[in-house]
Amino acid sequence: MGKGKAIGIAAVLAGVAAASALFMYTNGSERPQAKDDLPGPAPAGKPAHADGKGIIAGTLEPSLTYKKENGAYVFTFTVKNQTERVQTVTFTSSKQYDYILYRDGKKVKQFSEGKMFAQIYEERTLKQGEELSFQETFRDLAPGTYTLEWWLADKNWPNARASVTFTVE
After folding, report:
1. Residue 52: exposed, middle, or buried by beta-carbon count in 10 A (0-12, 13-18, 19+)?
2. Mean pLDDT on 38-66
3. How many angstroms separate the CA atoms of 11 and 9, rounded?
């Protein structure tokens, strides 16, 4: 066997060994944790302070609000870290959220429908009390009763979803 071939084989073996070591290192407890990382069940929530601030529950708390501006409806979806630990939100594509807008019970629009999203991996950490917010504006809505259902595109936080019903006259 030639000297170049032996060096090539040695390099491949070294690469495989390094990749195996890296996999073993990251396949343990170093994985991102979405749920509260305390052992056992999540800690009981603490009551809210009189000023409305502070830890009140043991999860990411979703909320969906809207305001009407110049005939358009501006919606804000927020998730707030209401745990006693720093939490990680993981996105496996550029789709960070999804929503469905219904009018009189029929689907009018879904954010992700007909779209393609870049295959990227992003982790966002939220300290205690920190929020992650997204905003969308709807214009020219026909009269009717609408329901907007909105959720975080992280399978580790299935309860990070909210909905709101409103009427357009």
Report:
1. exposed
2. 55
3. 5
